[in-house]
Structures are given as structure tokens and as C-alpha cells.
């Protein structure tokens, strides 16, 4: 981490009377846990009060994580509130921030921690590293570089961020994930207990994703599987469809997994996974992006057209 930027960030934290942290809209484990961990780090080390603000939905499986009650829906924050310091974590691109964007625009100073590629960064100081498997690792780097105090909540939240964004260590491309996790375990993280915290899915969600799995279509000699969730079923979905994606990935011969979600009329969410080969370039052709083996996009078109476009995108892959 750049020492000059770290010094500036510390100065801004110390000077700020109002501080807020946000991740991308519809928080996943890494975004929410990184935000809450950083909130607690600042409170513990700088004696500052911090707001964690989000837009969208938080899936039920994250309801039991430490400090969950401290995250506030953006509409519950006064619209005229102005923050001296706003920190973005795991946000990807500006369009992913949703309703918190006016607060970011009005902030006096913006910093960011992210592991996504972004050619239009918002932060005046950016602690970004695409090689990291989770933004939570960058929060952990901040703690260790600055020799900051931690407690059990911080350690557990950082560990949960890593667990969730690596798909419980399935999506790992560098050994630092295991090095960081080993240090977190030495500091008191219990992997078994933390994974069990996440076993909390909504019944309707499980049934909806199971139906999508049972109706999935297979292409290119079974190497590509495509599952769909229509608009009516999407209303029952709590989360991003990870259960369906993970279940389809267990099928012998399947290399690529795609889940299409009709979020609104002519608004289709596309989640793409791969077992061994990069697929982020395919997400980019759809207007999205992501990591090598886990990526996605939101496409403005009807479900059938997006389905056909996705199938063609995998032709010859």
C-alpha cells in the first residue's frame, strides 16, 4: 500500500467529523463484511463514529454476521447529510453504487478499497488490487500495514469476506488467500463456525433456485449449462443465485455455468461461472465484467434475446 496515500487517509479519518462507508448495490458477503470491518477498525483505532450505508437488498444468509444491524438502508439517512469522508469498498464501478451516489458526490473526500478492475476510479486515494481474491484482504492489509488494533468482530468479518468471495475457497488464484486466512485463524477466526453462520437461506429462494436447476439447458456437448429465473420467480429470490450456480457446477462435464435472472421487464442479470477457464471477457462482451472465473453483467433486453446472445458468446470457447 502506498505510504503517501495511507498517510493522507489517516489524516482524513482523524480530521473527519462525519464518515460513511458503502459497497456496491445489493451487498454480497465481501462488500458488507469489508464495510462493517472497516467501520469497526475506525471506531476502535480512531474513536470515530461511522455510518455504513447500502442500497438494494441484503440476503438472509448474511443476517447473522457480526454487526449486521449497523448497516443502514440509504433512504433512512437524511438526504442533506454531508460526509467529510466517504470510503467505498468492493464497488466495482460507479454505476453499481445505486442510491448512495448522491452522498458520495457531496462528500468532501472520497477513498476506496477494491479488488475489481475499474478504469474510472472515484477515490482521491485508491487502495485497489485486482490480484486479491476479496476486498476484505485489502482491509486486512490496511490493518497489518498500520499495525491497527483488532477485535473478534473485525477478524470474523474479514474472514467472512474472504470465505464468501472465494466461494468458500473454490475461486482462488493465488496463495495469499490461504496465508491471510491462516493468520486470521491464528487470530481467533473459526472457519467452521463462520461458514455455519451463512447457512441461513430463505425457503422460497432455495425452491426457486432448485426449479431453475431442474429446468436448466445444456449446450456444446454439455460443457455449457444455462439456467433461467423469470420475473415472477425473481421476486422470490434472495441473493444472487449462488445455490443454483454451485449446484450446476457439480455436474460432470460442465465447464461453464450461466444463470439468467429477469430482474425487471427487459432487464436481465447474467451471472457466469467457470471451473477452470477465464470467462470475464465474455461478461465484458455483454457490458459487464468481473473476475477470471466469476463474472456477470446486466443487459437491457428481453430474456430470450439475452439467452440466445449468451449461448452464441460461448460458441467456440
What integer value in Å does the Rg equal? 19 Å
Q: Quaternary status of these chains? A: single chain
CATH topology of the largest domain: inorganic pyrophosphatase (n-terminal core)
Give me the CATH architecture of the largest domain, please.
Answer: Alpha-Beta Complex
Q: By helix and strand content, what is the structural category? A: alpha/beta
What is the top-level CATH class of the largest domain? Alpha Beta
Shape, principal axes of CA atoms = globular
Order of helices and strands: HEHEEEHEEHHHHHEEHHEEHEEH
Low-confidence stretches: none
Beta content comes to 15-25%
Counting DSSP H or I runs of 4 or more residues, the number of helices is: 12
Structurally, the number of domains stands at 2
Report the span from N to C terminus.
37 Å
Strand order of the largest sheet: 3-2-1-4-5-6
Q: Taking all residues together, what is the mean pLDDT?
A: 94
CATH homologous superfamily caption of the largest domain: inorganic pyrophosphatase (n-terminal core)
